[in-house]
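Retro notes (design track)

What went well: tokenization of the new backbones is finally stable.
What didn't: we kept losing track of which sequence belonged to which structure.
Fix going forward: every design gets posted as structure first, then sequence, in one message. First example under the new rule, 392 residues:
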């Protein structure tokens, strides 16, 4: 649904002209599960968006509608639910709650949400709705926070209200993505650099059609395992605050003190951080073959050490091998389903998509969805509204 279509739906529903704010999904090129370990990531925003149309209300009600979900919701802004309801509105409620806790005025409003980011595919539809909602709600009180602060508030909403202990990456790149560039983010300092991607390459995202949920379950277990590793390692190395601080030599020296599963989780994070920095050098020098090899190493580590892949993701990665224009690929996102991301020469991207879909369908009986993407700009207001894009 375009911004114009959303505005028309909003006018029919609420009989008033809205402001519209949008935020993109993202794909992570490399650096998986490193964000909540204070590490490095290399995502980029992609041209799939969630849009939130908003207008003020004078009765203190928060009225929510969605183009994708039939169920409407209505709440008293001064008495919002304290726990998630298990519905699409949880992301909106979480943002409203965290904004209020941070001292920002959240007034009554009509919100209409629409998005084209595939749900459950690992492309951060949740971060996009959080960021676009935050910008929309803040606009009613004429507050323009730096986008990195918006990202932190939205991460807090997903951590504390929704219940998924995600790192900062998804919200950050949804806020600060840049067309034609990936974003190297230091998840400890939140310092970032834009990394230009060669124009000759497209990002071909392949959806396995296996859905996953991150609110609890194995995602949170992996985070707890990393924290356990830090607790054990810090007994010998007191300066260690996160796995970001651990060298490979330090880890191997403590192998005997770590349960095997904890050692494997730690080893993935330490090596993945190094792969991110190596990949940045490859992209900057235009060495796409080497960048692709690093992505392949990342996938094998996620499969064997972090154990967050699945049969369908592995088949999709294997199906790409040997296809024309293919430089490399990996699973992307939290795991247990979702998508792979592939670096493909621009001239071969469309045919690559058709061939990998045929291979995957032949082995699984499932027809995948294929998205040929390029890096996009981050969140902001649609034309004619008050908030500028890329306000750092």
């Amino acid at each position: 649904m375009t911004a114009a279509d959303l505005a028309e739906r909003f006018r029919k529903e609420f009989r008033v002209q809205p402001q519209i704010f949008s935020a993109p999904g993202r794909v992570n090129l490399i650096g998986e599960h490193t964000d909540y370990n204070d590490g490095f990531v290399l995502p980029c925003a992609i041209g799939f968006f969630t849009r939130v149309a908003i207008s003020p209300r004078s009765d203190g009600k928060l009225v929510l509608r969605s183009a994708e979900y039939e169920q409407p919701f209505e709440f008293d802004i001064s008495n919002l639910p304290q726990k998630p309801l298990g519905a699409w509105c949880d992301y909106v409620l979480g943002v409203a709650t965290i904004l209020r806790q941070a001292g920002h005025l959240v007034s009554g409003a009509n919100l209409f949400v629409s998005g084209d980011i595939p749900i459950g595919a690992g492309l951060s539809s949740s971060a996009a709705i959080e960021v676009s909602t935050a910008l929309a709600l803040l606009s009613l009180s004429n507050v323009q926070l730096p986008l990195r602060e918006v990202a932190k508030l939205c991460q807090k909403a997903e951590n504390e209200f929704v219940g998924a202990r995600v790192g900062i990456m998804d919200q950050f790149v949804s806020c600060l993505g840049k067309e034609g560039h990936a974003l190297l983010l230091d998840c400890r300092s939140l310092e970032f650099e834009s990394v230009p991607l060669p124009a000759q390459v497209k990002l071909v995202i392949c959806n396995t059609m296996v859905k996953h949920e991150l609110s609890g379950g194995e995602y949170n277990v992996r985070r707890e395992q990393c924290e356990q590793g830090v607790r054990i390692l810090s007994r010998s190395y007191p300066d260690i605050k996160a796995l970001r601080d651990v060298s490979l030599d330090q880890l191997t020296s403590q192998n005997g003190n770590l349960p095997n599963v904890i050692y494997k989780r730690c080893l993935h994070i330490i090596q993945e951080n190094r792969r991110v920095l190596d990949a940045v050098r490859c992209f900057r020098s235009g060495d796409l073959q080497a960048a692709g090899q690093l992505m392949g190493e990342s996938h094998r580590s996620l499969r064997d050490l972090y154990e967050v892949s699945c049969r369908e993701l592995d088949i999709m990665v294997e199906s790409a091998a040997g296809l024309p224009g293919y430089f490399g690929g990996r699973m992307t996102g939290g795991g247990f389903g979702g998508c792979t991301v592939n670096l493909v020469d621009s001239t071969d991207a469309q045919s690559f998509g058709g061939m990998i879909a045929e291979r995957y369908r032949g082995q699984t009986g499932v027809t995948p969805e294929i998205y040929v993407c390029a890096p996009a700009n981050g969140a902001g207001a649609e034309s004619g509204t008050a908030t500028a894009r890329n306000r750092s």
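Added context from the reviewer: The radius of gyration is 21 Å.
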